[in-house]
Design brief:
This protein is of the alpha/beta class and 455 residues long. 36% of the residues lie in helices and 17% in strands. The chain contains 19 helices and 15 strands. The strands form five sheets. It has a three-stranded mixed β-sheet. The chain has a three-stranded mixed β-sheet with strand order 3-4-5. A three-stranded mixed β-sheet has the order 6-7-8, with helices on both faces. Strand 10, helix 11 and strand 11 form a beta-alpha-beta unit. It is globular and about 60 Å long. About 1% of the residues have low confidence.
C-alpha cells in the first residue's frame, strides 16, 4: 500500500454519551470502583458534561472524535417481560418494592462505556476490504446484557453503507461465548493504515476438556472466553497470522481487573502493560513480535512501581493512547493518576523520561464515570477509518464545535444534577429520559433506534 493511501486512515474515538439515568447502583461484580460506590448519589448532568468536555478537548487537539447515543433507560419493556404489569408508574413502583436490584439494572447507564459496545476490524485487515462490527453480547451481567440490540441498531444506522461496513450478530448469549467487546481487544500496527495484528485477551476457556488445566480467578468471574474471541476473529475473516490470543492473569482479575483495558493499553506498535497483565507475558510478547511487521515497543510497568491495587484505583492503564502527526503519542489519563503519588511518579520517570513514543500525559476529570468503574479508555470505541469510509458515515456523529454546543445545551435542558437509587422509581424520570432521547436522535440524525421509537 502506498504512503498516500496509508495516510488516509485515521482513528476515530466514538465516545458514549452518559445517559440521563446515570446512577451508582454497584451492579458490576469484580469492578471494585462500581461495587464500592453503590448506593451513593450521582450527578447525571455533571457526568455527561465531563464526558463532553473530554471529547471537546481531544477534538481541539486535532483528534477525530465521534459520539454514540446512550441506551433507552429505564428499560420498561424488560420489566414487563419479567412479569411487571400495568401503567409505567405501576411497573416502576412494583419493581422498586419487589425487586429493587432489578430496577437498578434496567436503569443502568453503563452503555456510556462504549469500549464494551462491540469489537471491530478495520478494512485494512479484513479480507473483503470492509470495516467489520460485532456487538458484544455482555451476557455476564444482566444490566449489560440488555444493551446489544440497541447497540447493533445504532452501529448499523451510523455505519450504514454496505459497500464499506459489515455488521455481524452478537455471539450466542451463553457463558461459553461470553464477550465483552473491544475492552479485551487491541490492534497493534506500525500506523493505522498498515496491516495490523489483533491481540485478543480472555479470562477463561469454556471448552477445555482434555487440555492442560489453566489457572483461574478465585474471587471474581472471568468475563471473556477464548471461544468468544476466536469466534469474533472468524466472523471478521482474520487469519492466524493476524491474531494473538492471550490469557489474562487470574490474579489481576481477582484484584479488580475485570477487563484487559484496566491493565494494558496499546496503540500503533506500543503496548503499555502491567507485569501482571498476562498469564504468560513472554509468550505473548514473542508471538506479537513474530507477527507484527513493525517492531513491537513493549512498555512494561513492574509491580514494584505500580501495584495491582494502585493500577485498579488509578486506572493508569485505562487511558487513551493517541497517535500524533509527528509520530509521537499522547496518553490521556484520569485525574486519579495525578492523585496517586506512585502512579504519577511512574508516569513522569518511567514513561515520559523513557525512550518511547509517549511525549505527553494529559489529565482529564471523569470522576462521575470513574466512581462507577470506567476511565477514559472505557468511554470510547476506537474505529479506524479511511477518508472514504469517514465520508460514508450516516448521521451527524463526528464532533465539531456546533455539535458540541448543541449537545451541551441538550444535557443542561434534560439532565438532573442529582440522582439517588430511590429516584429510579420516579415515573417522571422515565418520561424525561424518553423526551431527551427523542431529541437526541434528531440532533444526531440517526433515525429511530430505540425500542419505544420502533413500536
Amino acid at each position: 500500500m502506498n504512503e498516500t493511501v496509508k495516510s488516509d486512515y485515521r482513528e476515530v474515538n466514538f465516545d458514549g454519551l452518559v445517559g440521563p439515568t446515570h446512577n451508582y447502583a454497584g451492579l458490576a461484580l469484580g469492578n471494585v470502583a462500581s461495587m464500592s460506590h453503590g448506593g451513593l448519589v450521582a450527578n447525571p448532568r455533571e457526568a455527561a458534561l465531563q464526558g463532553l468536555a473530554k471529547m471537546k478537548a481531544l477534538m481541539e487537539a486535532g483528534y477525530l472524535q465521534g459520539v454514540l447515543p446512550p441506551q433507552q433507560r429505564p428499560d420498561l419493556g424488560t420489566l414487563r417481560a419479567l412479569g411487571f404489569t400495568g401503567s409505567d408508574e405501576r411497573v416502576l413502583a412494583r419493581a422498586a418494592g419487589e425487586a429493587p436490584q432489578l430496577l437498578r439494572a434496567v436503569c443502568s447507564a453503563s452503555s456510556m462505556w462504549t469500549a464494551n459496545a462491540a469489537t471491530l476490524t478495520p478494512s485494512r485487515d479484513a479480507p473483503d476490504g470492509r470495516v467489520h462490527f460485532t456487538p458484544a453480547n455482555l451476557q455476564s451481567s444482566f444490566h449489560r446484557f440488555l444493551e446489544p440490540g440497541t447497540t447493533g441498531r445504532v452501529l448499523a444506522a451510523i455505519f450504514s453503507d454496505p459497500a464499506h461496513f459489515a455488521h455481524h450478530p452478537a455471539l450466542p448469549a451463553t457463558p461459553a461465548f461470553s464477550d465483552e467487546g473491544a475492552a479485551n481487544h487491541t490492534r497493534l500496527a506500525g500506523e493505522h493504515g498498515e496491516a495490523g495484528v489483533h491481540l485478543y485477551v480472555y479470562g477463561r476457556q469454556a471448552f477445555g476438556w482434555g487440555t492442560e488445566e489453566r489457572p483461574a480467578p478465585q474471587r471474581f468471574p472471568a468475563r471473556q472466553t477464548l471461544e468468544a474471541s476466536q469466534a469474533v476473529a472468524r466472523q471478521h475473516g482474520l487469519s492466524e497470522s493476524q491474531t494473538v490470543f492471550a490469557q489474562q492473569h487470574p490474579n489481576a482479575i481477582d484484584a479488580g481487573v475485570f477487563h484487559n483495558d484496566v491493565i494494558s493499553v496499546g496503540n500503533g506498535p506500543v503496548l503499555l502493560y502491567h507485569e501482571m497483565a498476562f498469564l504468560d507475558e513472554q509468550a505473548v510478547l514473542d508471538e506479537l513480535r513474530g507477527k507484527l511487521v513493525t517492531p513491537l515497543i513493549p512498555l512494561r510497568v513492574p509491580a514494584e512501581a505500580v501495584s495491582l491495587e494502585d493500577a485498579v484505583g488509578s486506572y493508569l492503564f485505562n487511558s487513551q493512547l493517541l497517535s500524533n502527526p509527528d509520530g509521537s503519542m499522547t496518553l490521556v489519563v484520569p485525574g486519579e493518576c495525578q492523585e496517586n503519588e506512585r502512579v504519577w511518579r511512574t508516569l513522569q520517570d518511567h514513561l515520559l523520561a523513557g525512550a518511547n513514543p509517549i511525549a505527553e500525559v494529559v489529565v482529564k476529570d471523569v470522576k462521575q464515570s470513574m466512581r462507577n468503574g470506567g476511565g477514559p479508555a472505557c468511554l470510547r470505541l476506537r474505529v479506524v477509518l479511511s477518508a472514504e469510509e469517514r465520508a460514508a458515515l450516516s448521521g451527524r456523529v463526528l464532533l465539531d464545535e456546533a455539535l458540541h454546543a448543541e449537545l451541551v445545551a441538550w444535557v443542561r435542558c434534560h439532565y438532573r444534577d442529582r440522582l439517588a437509587p430511590a429516584d429510579l422509581a420516579d415515573p417522571q424520570l422515565a418520561a424525561e429520559s424518553l423526551a431527551a432521547l427523542d431529541e437526541l436522535t434528531r440532533i444526531l440524525k440517526i433515525g429511530s433506534v430505540y425500542p419505544y421509537q420502533l413500536s
